[in-house]
């Protein structure tokens, strides 16, 4: 039995700074819960906040990451630098030398999780990543441990706070994407380079991690279909509201049995009465449907320094509590083989289409013929505006194969009477 668990922290940015604060400020309680002292003994950072928001004992801060990775005294390495460059190298080095590794890095786990878990297993150490999905919400432990006896059939929700903040703002203020993004950047909700969030990467990494655990499978990130929110307009949000929906970036995983698993992230019109429609600002929420639990929703802060740090530090405590049992968190995702992901063309959804068309007789008939030929059944058709010889058409379909819908759009765009299919948004939750 060790008389102390020593922690080395790499990165002292938003999340790393929070982790240092929780480990130092709450040390007494963490140690009492773990049953063993937990000491943050080394920190390395490229970006030094001056002055630090908390005092550090002499010798804790180091400019050399080797003081953590090659330090035989250190039991647990916590990585808070993000990305898959240096972070991947540090993860491989730490685990290979028999150190536990804790990370909130979703890209690292989504892309290299199976490899890193295999090293952890071989070395009898833990790789913990609770904070990699939905920040402070305990969804990974929830799925891995608390729902381990259930069979999860569906998992869907809001996994990215930045896009939820932007869509929420667009919805409340009637603004378009670009000004809402600019405002989110000014207030620190969106990064200067917002691609990872607004183009859907971040939510897709998180879906890949959750689905791996929920469906006991190893998925390839490349197989996930993801779209961001750049194409969502104030016009579509207004139409959605009239139809009783709100638009959210929803990540969806559905077990279709032998057909495979549906994994997709895209803007979705969801009924205003659904609890996910009321997830506001930068919050996250995950719905899980299982054979025994029925439906459960996990809700809370999906980002932010202290909520994320709380989850990271929780993993450190967990490791300390279980340090006498080698590899106490069996890496469920490496115990199961690869699983087929349903190609997006085979996924069935209802669709909202908005078209700009010429305002003349017979247009609707031509569009309806294309839909009929491709087996696309229309549920609702509206023509809200007609001005200067141009009209807007809104079509809502019954559930149809994505492949048929895309072919219908190609054919509609080729009609001389169609100016453009302006938007396609999937309607409804899985
Ligand atoms: N940038 C993410 C979000 C948090 O907006 O939810 C970290 O994954």
Structure, explained:
The structure is a single chain. With 430 residues, the protein is α/β, with parallel strands linked by helices. It has 3 domains: 5-133 and 305-321, NAD(P)-binding Rossmann-like Domain (Rossmann fold, 3-Layer(aba) Sandwich); 139-301, Dihydrodipicolinate Reductase, domain 2; 346-427, Alpha-Beta Plaits (2-Layer Sandwich), CATH 3.30.70. Helix content is 35%, strand content 25%. It has 14 helices and 18 strands. Strands 7, 8, 9, 10, 11, 12, 13, 14, 15, 16, 17 and 18 form a 12-stranded mixed beta sheet that branches. The protein has a 6-stranded parallel beta sheet with strand order 3-2-1-4-5-6, with helices on both faces. Helix 1 packs across helix 12, helix 4 (86-96) packs parallel to helix 5 (106-123) and helix 7 packs across helix 8 (177-186). The model has no long low-confidence stretch (mean pLDDT 94). The structure holds L-homoserine. L-homoserine binds at residues 106, 160-162, 197, 202, 302-303.
Helix content: 25-40%
Strand residue percentage: 25-35%
- Overall pLDDT: 94
Low-confidence stretches: none
Count of helical segments? 14
Q: Got a strand count?
A: 18
- Report the biggest beta sheet as strand number plus sense, adding barrel if it closes: 12 strands, mixed
Concise synopsis of the structure shown:
The chain has helices spanning 14-25, 27-34, 66-69, 86-96, 106-123, 139-146, 161-173, 177-186, 195-198, 201-214, 234-242, 305-321, 363-373, 402-414; strands at 5-10, 38-44, 61-62, 76-79, 100-102, 127-128, 152-158, 225-226, 245-255, 261-271, 283-290, 294-301, 348-358, 378-382, 386-387, 390-397, 400-401, 418-427.
């Amino acid at each position: 039995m060790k008389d102390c668990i020593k922690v080395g922290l790499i990165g002292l940015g938003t999340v790393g700074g929070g982790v240092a604060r929780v480990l130092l400020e709450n040390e007494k309680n963490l140690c009492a819960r773990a049953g063993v002292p937990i000491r943050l003994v080394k920190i390395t950072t490229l970006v030094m906040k001056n002055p630090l928001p908390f005092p550090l004992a002499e010798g804790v801060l180091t400019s050399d990451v080797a003081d953590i990775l090659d330090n035989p005294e250190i039991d647990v390495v916590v990585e808070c630098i993000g990305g898959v460059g240096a972070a991947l190298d540090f993860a491989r080095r730490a685990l290979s030398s028999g150190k536990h590794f804790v990370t909130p890095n979703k890209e690292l786990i989504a892309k290299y999780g199976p490899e890193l878990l295999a090293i952890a297993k071989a070395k009898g150490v833990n790789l913990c990543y609770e904070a990699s999905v939905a920040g402070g919400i305990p969804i990974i432990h929830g799925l891995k441990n608390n729902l381990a006896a259930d069979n999860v059939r569906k998992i869907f929700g809001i996994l990215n706070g930045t896009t939820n903040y932007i869509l929420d703002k667009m919805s409340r203020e009637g603004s378009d994407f670009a000004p809402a993004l600019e405002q989110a950047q000014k207030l620190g909700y969106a990064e200067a380079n917002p691609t990872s969030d607004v183009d859907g990467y971040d939510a897709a990494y998180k879906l890949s991690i959750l689905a791996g655990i929920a469906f006991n499978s190893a998925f390839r990130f490349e197989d996930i279909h993801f779209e961001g929110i750049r194409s969502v307009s104030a016009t579509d949000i207004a139409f959605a509201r009239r139809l009783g929906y709100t638009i959210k970036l929803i990540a969806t995983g559905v077990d279709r049995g032998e057909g495979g698993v549906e994994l997709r992230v895209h803007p979705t019109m969801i009924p205003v009465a659904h609890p996910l429609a009321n997830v506001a600002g930068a919050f996250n929420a995950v719905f899980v449907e299982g054979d025994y639990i029925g439906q459960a929703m996990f809700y809370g802060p999906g980002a932010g320094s202290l909520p994320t740090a709380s989850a990271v530090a929780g993993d450190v405590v967990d490791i300390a509590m279980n340090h006498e049992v080698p590899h106490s968190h069996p890496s469920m995702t490496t115990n199961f083989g690869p699983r087929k992901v349903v190609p997006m063309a085979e996924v069935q959804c209802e669709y909202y289409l908005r078209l700009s068309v010429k305002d003349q007789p017979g247009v609707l008939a031509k569009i309806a013929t294309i839909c009929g030929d491709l087996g696309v059944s229309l549920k609702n058709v509206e023509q809200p505006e007609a001005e200067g010889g141009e009209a807007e058409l809104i079509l809502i379909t019954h559930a149809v194969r994505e492949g048929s819908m895309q072919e219908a759009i190609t054919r509609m765009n080729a009609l001389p009477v169609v100016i453009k299919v302006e938007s396609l948004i999937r309607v409804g939750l899985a």
